[in-house]
Inverse folding.
């Protein structure tokens, strides 16, 4: 036997064992040191034999393999917290609109489950079917997907972990509480994304997360959103829109699939739930509204009722790393998917297509298996195997999936060192991209109109000064470079922001040339970008000297 962890007073014995000719997968013994006597004998230590088991679960070979492969050490947490465990088949899945606990209309799925194996729960004794209502589903062209909660497909076979709370059954730990046995869903044939050439999504934050200070929460959320831009290098980003008091997502009544400009003015709410919410029983959930193959609205819930939130790595099952959860859910909001719990590696790759040629645990969007076994103690594991909640960043695979949706954005900034993009630079670029969207630069024909205006401005400038634009740029940059050392710190910071946005704009103009929007000399554009970079480096050096 081994102690599960330092936070739960239980022992965990990993099976299988033979007990009365039945296969027992695991036994959990609840210990109270004030009641159970430990005695020393010549042969060692033993526990008072009156101890009784708190849980004995009998799983079939197939069930055991799927549960342990999918959840590893975390399976013990689900087994301990479940009132009802069953294996079943989704005989039918129907959809309806009804109000959530906030009184807002949402789409729900009504799942009629044919019970094929009664694993735990007196309530199952006389039942052949089990009816379950879960958030998410499709009505007409309108779809609500809740990432972090399981979905159900007709004829799918699964093991389900449930608990009763406030008069209804909820799925334990969200998507982890449903283990697919036969394979989860049909292959994804068309990826969904936000509309537009360059979608910039506004998000607001409700800082009512009681375990983390408001300032730290805002800082982490902004850092996670900017990281998708910094590392993702795609024509996509998140724009911080300030604070909100909202504690729910947009409801079904405000999602209008007949509107052309669906994403205009919409704000993603990131909020905490400090009370029971059966619509999100995992640590966090991303609510994603879709019209056909277009994402039109979203929201992110952090479940503060059942979990503690931390800013550092942790090996305790009830402590979730805030940045990891925000990064993962922002990925879902962008349109990225992950494996479904219970899918084998082959099923996952087959479902998600060419983006998943292999599975890598380091990926932000990785969800197979859910957690390493070290989460609840793995005894003789090597120390590095117990690092179960390391702070992640988007990997090359995450980046590739994002770029496959929105295209690659080439930014000529170093990735590290003092000249690399910092948080202020990224905010400046995202703000400028957001402004371009508001002014219609990225609407249909917008880049063409912008390029035509730029070409006219260059022609007018050359005619007025009787010098070509290259000469004008050389003279201007030479003058600014000479004056930079005389600027005070505030002006230097403004200049750095101006130059960073100038570099981004130069890259856009270069892309416009490639896309056929204009025929401005590419040599001039490249030279302009390089001069901006050189002057930005000089400005950063001057900032360092002033600080």
């Amino acid at each position: 036997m081994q102690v599960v962890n330092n936070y739960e007073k239980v022992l965990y014995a990993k099976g299988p064992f033979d007990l009365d000719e039945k296969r027992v997968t695991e036994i959990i013994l609840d210990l109270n040191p004030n009641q159970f006597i430990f005695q020393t004998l010549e042969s060692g230590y033993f526990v008072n034999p009156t101890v009784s088991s708190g849980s004995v679960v009998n799983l079939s070979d197939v069930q055991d393999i799927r549960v342990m492969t999918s959840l590893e050490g975390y399976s013990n947490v689900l087994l301990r917290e479940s009132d009802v465990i069953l294996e079943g088949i989704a005989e039918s899945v129907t959809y309806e609109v009804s109000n959530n606990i906030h009184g807002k209309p949402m789409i729900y799925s009504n799942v009629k489950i044919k019970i094929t194996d009664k694993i735990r729960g007196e309530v199952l004794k006389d039942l052949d079917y089990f009816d379950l209502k879960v958030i998410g589903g499709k009505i007409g062209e309108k779809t609500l997907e809740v990432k972090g909660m399981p979905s159900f497909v007709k004829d799918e076979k699964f093991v389900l972990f449930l608990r009763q709370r406030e008069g209804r059954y909820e799925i334990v730990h969200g998507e982890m509480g449903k283990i697919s046995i036969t394979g989860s869903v049909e292959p994804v044939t068309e990826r969904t994304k936000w509309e537009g050439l360059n979608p910039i999504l506004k998000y607001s934050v409700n800082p009512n997360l009681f375990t983390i200070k408001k300032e730290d929460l805002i800082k982490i959320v902004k850092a996670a959103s900017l990281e998708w831009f910094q590392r993702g290098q795609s024509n996509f980003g998140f724009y911080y829109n300030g604070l909100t008091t909202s504690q729910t997502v947009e409801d079904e009544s405000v999602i209008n699939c007949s509107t052309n400009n669906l994403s205009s003015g919409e704000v993603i709410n990131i909020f905490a739930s400090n009370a029971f919410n059966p619509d999100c029983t995992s640590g966090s959930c991303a609510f994603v509204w879709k019209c056909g193959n277009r994402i039109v609205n979203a929201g992110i819930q952090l479940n503060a009722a059942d979990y503690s939130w931390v800013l550092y790595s942790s090996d305790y099952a009830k402590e979730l790393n805030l940045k990891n959860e925000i990064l993962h859910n922002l990925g879902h909001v962008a349109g990225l998917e992950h494996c479904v719990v219970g899918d084998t590696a082959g099923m996952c790759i087959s479902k998600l297509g060419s983006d998943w040629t292999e599975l890598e645990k380091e990926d932000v969007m990785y969800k197979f298996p859910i957690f390493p076994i070290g989460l609840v103690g793995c005894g003789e594991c090597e120390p590095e195997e117990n690092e179960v909640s390391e702070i992640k960043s988007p990997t090359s695979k995450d980046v590739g999936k994002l770029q496959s949706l929105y295209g690659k954005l080439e930014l000529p900034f170093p990735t590290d060192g003092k000249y690399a993009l910092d948080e202020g630079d990224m905010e400046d670029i995202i703000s400028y991209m957001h402004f371009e969207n508001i002014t219609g630069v990225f609407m249909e024909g917008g880049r063409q109109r912008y390029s035509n205006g730029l070409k006219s401005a260059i022609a007018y400038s050359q005619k007025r000064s009787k010098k070509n634009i290259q000469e004008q740029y050389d003279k201007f940059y030479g003058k600014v470079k000479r004056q930079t050392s005389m600027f005070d710190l505030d002006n230097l910071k403004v200049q750095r922001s101006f130059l960073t946005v100038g570099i981004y704009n130069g890259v856009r103009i270069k892309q416009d040339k490639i896309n056929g929007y204009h025929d401005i000399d590419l040599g001039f554009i490249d030279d302009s970008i390089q001069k901006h970079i050189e002057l930005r480096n000089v400005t950063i050096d001057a900032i360092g000297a002033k600080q």
